[in-house]
Amino acid sequence: MTRQAGIIGHPVAHSLSPVFQSAAFAHCGLDVVYERWDTPGGRLPERIASLREPDVLGANVTIPHKEAVIPLLDELGGQSARMGAVNTIVNREGRLFGFNTDGPGFVAALKAEAVFDPAGKRVLLLGAGGAARGIAFALAEANAAAVAIANRTPERAVRLAEAVGSGSGIVRAVPLDVALGEYDCVVNCTSIGMRGGPAPSGIPAALDSARSGTLIVDIVYAPELTPFLAEAARRGLRSIGGLPMLIYQGALAFELWTGVRAPIDVMFAAARNELASRAGAQR
Ligand code: NAP
Predict the structure, then answer these.
(1) Res. 165 pLDDT band, cuts 50 70 90
(2) Active-site residue among 3, 47, 65, 66?
(3) DSSP letters along 82-121, please?
(4) Which domains does the chain have, with CATH numbers?
(5) Ligand 1 mean position to 96 CA, how many Å?
């Protein structure tokens, strides 16, 4: 029986997930079709109910439905209940389980691709939106020594720090002009630098105060070399882009659906190939 999986969001036309998930299923010899399931808000209950069918493995969930799917599921796993957001749904014999692999994918990417274990490290997040939320929860769970959050709208950073920190003192909001030298890792979690975004040629913070050992991370993955990463390279700072986070969150979802180890290299190759052809089409 051919099984199904897909990505639920609105819009989903530009999602890379179908490209690298399909490559992973094919590589592992699994008969699974992964589709784009564009779902306007009013059709979400019907779409989620359809995931209970025996031939459906599950789904990814993206903007704007990560919170709205929660009441439609049977159980929540990992940190998804505390986070209040689900990006992966698994169908187990008609019961739907929600997980969030965004933050764990970020941490897995740092460990595997940048040889950076956040345990005991001080990390600064620039931005306090949905992506920063997942990352902040995962860094706290990974025993980071400090998670500081700086955002254009400071109240949002304060609210996020409160939601993650529960009074631990490890997670706190800081001003945008905080000195970077205090941190082992600085992460752009804003949309600054994203192609087609609000500030495609901007950078989220000047790097003058970063010290030589600081790891610079940009979770924006299109373009793969963002202005922030280019600035880090100009200063000789170690850096990693957003594609690894995207691939590792997808790999964790793949493993939840199938129980099979995700073919990371195959997924990277498929995503890079697609990004290159999209960039070529825009030239
Ligand atoms: P979001 O919830 O809309 O949050 C956007 C964040 O960017 C907010 O902190 C916002 O600040 C800030 N921002 C936007 N425009 C800005 C500007 N011109 N100047 C200063 N700050 C600005 O978006 P999101 O879902 O968190 O996604 C953020 C970025 O991460 C996107 O580029 C997305 O593609 C990328 N992303 C990557 C992955 C991955 O797997 N690599 C996963 C998720 C997201 P305010 O609060 O002040 O508005």
Answers:
(1) confident
(2) 66
(3) HHT--SEEEEETTEEEEE--HHHHHHHHHHHHH----TT-
(4) 3-100+244-282 (3.40.50.10860), 115-237 (3.40.50.720)
(5) 29
